């Protein structure tokens, strides 16, 4: 920190000297008017005296400080001024006002107190408190006065602020809602040592969690109760509506190429007239056993309810096929043997999850064997893509796989957020490959092959030049990312889509929050309902009932209704219906008008 000016040193010395000469028992006339504000120790002294009265000798040796007699308005004004030198009266006045209001003191007493110590009036402090609580702290930080301004952390490392802000925005957008200021502090700490090239020698963070909390407020973030989930609010968001429109238009313009279901009372298959295309729908779901102990201690018959989500769980990742050959994908023994000859790795099973015979269906015991992440999903889909070419019913068919738009599915090879601005900064890939506006395949190396910077990453600024995007060399990283994000080089597809291209299979993502556009969601609904009816709340029974529920699903041909509902939903959206309107259609029109999400439906909501 820069040295203090002569005037600052003199003011500080005077204030410190005043504390030294303050008399121990000095009482001021203003004290009585602040009894409701200034903290006293009367109750503590009584408690202390009562506990020490049994031992007079010990009590006589302990000097209980008469804190209240030493506390006066002028002393408080002095410490106020001492803080004012460092941070300004606006912040300290707002802090005192918010603290006293929180402790329940009256407005008039607080106003008198703030005026006496040299702070803002209660009305002004209240205004700045409202500004702070509403998330706009830039006004609170601006003192609008002259004087020397010292460099802050982000003045010295402006790129770190851009990166930290991007990290915070991305983290706040996650469904998990587990982002904390400590996460931001750790991210800044890691990036600081990467940027400076220094080695961390202790456990202290370069920027505290408290400072990061203020950073979030400065960037427009607000810390609010997590009462409303994003799931219930995103259906009519502009980007979601755009994706939904593209999704609907794609399928309806190609409807005569798919196997569809008739609208008769007895559903029948409509065979495509043009080159046929097989639709395969994928999703995962978790079955929870809800197992509890067979016996328990009970007092007076008071037995609490147990959580239906407790107990061991089993997660299934499966595929629903829109084709007359059957709703669930599998090969015959002969077809599978042919596939193994071509791809011997099909015989190897992962230690964390297992595949069903002749199929790509997979299951995993949650908590014991891990969880379905992007790596396991890619492995499962590669197995599916390898098996599909040996299914005789699919010969001379195009194949499209509809996938839920979850992060485990839509993870990309790289993101523009992963790139640094300058030479030698972070870079996630060696090369960038993309298709330009003329349809040509273009490949650009992200590292220097020769010259002074050989072996170093180019950074976004250099990549922008090679991509013929003209930007100011002094541009901030956040603005540079925003400009380059529209370039085809950074509009890369997901790892799953790239894997599909390898096997000539198209992968299509369902719009977020739209389970009615993925028929396999209805499979889980039916199977779980069956399991709940038959279960005895034990894990072995649940594992036995899961395949049994699937067989029952096939026997009753529920999949035909799900496929028909899928196309009905597409038609409804094409006609301009909203999510709420389609939701009523999704549940046979029995839902009342107050429903805003399928997860909000209860018995009382069904008319």
Automatic annotation (TrEMBL):
Superkingdom to which the source organism belongs: Eukaryota
InterPro entries linked: RNaseH_sf (IPR036397)
GO MF term list: nucleic acid binding
Gene3D superfamilies, sorted: Ribonuclease H-like superfamily/Ribonuclease H (3.30.420.10)
Protein name per UniProt: Uncharacterized protein
Organism name: Rotaria socialis
Lineage, highest ranks first: Eukaryota, Metazoa, Spiralia, Gnathifera, Rotifera
């Amino acid at each position: 920190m820069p040295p203090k000016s002569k005037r600052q040193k003199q003011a500080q010395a005077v204030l410190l000297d005043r504390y030294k000469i303050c008399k121990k028992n000095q009482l001021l006339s203003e004290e009585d008017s602040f009894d409701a504000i200034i903290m006293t120790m009367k109750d503590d002294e009584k408690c202390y005296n009562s506990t020490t009265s049994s031992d007079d000798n010990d009590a006589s040796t302990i000097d209980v400080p008469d804190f209240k007699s030493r506390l006066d308005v002028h002393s408080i004004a002095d410490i106020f001024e001492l803080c004012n030198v460092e941070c300004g009266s606006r912040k300290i006045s707002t802090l005192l006002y918010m603290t006293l209001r929180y402790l329940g003191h009256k407005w008039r007493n607080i106003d008198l107190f703030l005026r006496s110590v040299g702070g803002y009036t209660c009305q002004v402090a209240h205004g700045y408190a409202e500004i702070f609580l509403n998330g706009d702290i830039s006004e609170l930080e601006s003192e609008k006065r002259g004087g020397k301004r010292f460099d802050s952390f982000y003045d010295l490392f402006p790129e770190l602020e851009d990166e930290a802000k991007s990290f915070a925005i991305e983290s706040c957008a996650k469904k998990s809602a587990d982002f904390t200021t400590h996460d931001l502090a750790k991210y800044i700490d890691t990036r600081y040592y990467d940027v400076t090239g220094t080695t961390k020698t202790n456990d202290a963070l370069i920027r505290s969690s408290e400072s990061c909390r203020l950073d979030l407020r400065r960037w427009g973030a607000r810390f609010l109760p997590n009462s409303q989930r994003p799931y219930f609010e995103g259906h009519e968001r502009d980007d979601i509506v755009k994706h939904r429109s593209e999704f609907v238009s794609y399928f309806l313009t190609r409807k005569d190429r798919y196997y569809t279901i008739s609208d008769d009372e007895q559903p029948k298959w409509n065979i495509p007239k043009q080159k046929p295309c097989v639709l395969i729908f994928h999703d995962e779901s978790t079955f929870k056993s809800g197992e509890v102990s067979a016996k328990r201690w009970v007092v007076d018959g008071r037995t609490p309810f147990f959580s239906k989500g407790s107990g061991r769980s089993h997660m299934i990742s499966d595929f629903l096929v829109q084709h007359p050959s059957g709703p669930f994908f599998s090969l015959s023994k002969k077809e599978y043997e042919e596939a193994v000859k071509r791809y011997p790795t099909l015989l190897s099973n992962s230690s964390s999850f297992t595949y069903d015979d002749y199929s790509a269906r997979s299951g995993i015991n949650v908590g014991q064997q891990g969880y379905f992440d992007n790596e396991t999903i890619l492995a499962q889909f590669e197995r599916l893509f390898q098996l599909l070419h040996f299914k005789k019913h699919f010969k001379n068919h195009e194949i499209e796989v509809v996938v839920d738009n979850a992060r485990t599915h839509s993870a990309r090879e790289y993101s523009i957020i992963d790139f640094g601005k300058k030479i030698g900064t972070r870079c996630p890939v060696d090369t960038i490959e993309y298709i330009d506006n003329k349809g040509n395949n273009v490949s650009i190396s992200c590292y220097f092959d020769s010259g002074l910077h050989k072996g170093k990453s180019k950074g976004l600024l250099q990549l922008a030049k090679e991509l013929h995007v003209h930007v100011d060399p002094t541009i901030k990283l956040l603005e540079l990312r925003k400009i380059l994000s529209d370039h085809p080089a950074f509009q890369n597809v997901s790892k799953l889509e790239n894997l599909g291209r390898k096997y000539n299979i198209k992968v299509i993502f369902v719009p977020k929050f739209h389970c009615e556009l993925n028929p396999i969601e209805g499979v889980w609904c039916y199977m779980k309902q069956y399991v709940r009816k038959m279960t005895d709340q034990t894990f072995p029974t649940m594992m036995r009932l899961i395949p049994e529920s699937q067989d029952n699903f096939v026997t009753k041909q529920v999949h035909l209704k799900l496929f028909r509902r899928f196309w009905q939903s597409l038609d409804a959206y094409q006609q301009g219906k909203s999510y709420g309107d389609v939701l009523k259609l999704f549940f046979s029109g029995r839902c009342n008008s107050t429903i805003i999400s399928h997860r909000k439906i209860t018995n009382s909501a069904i008319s």
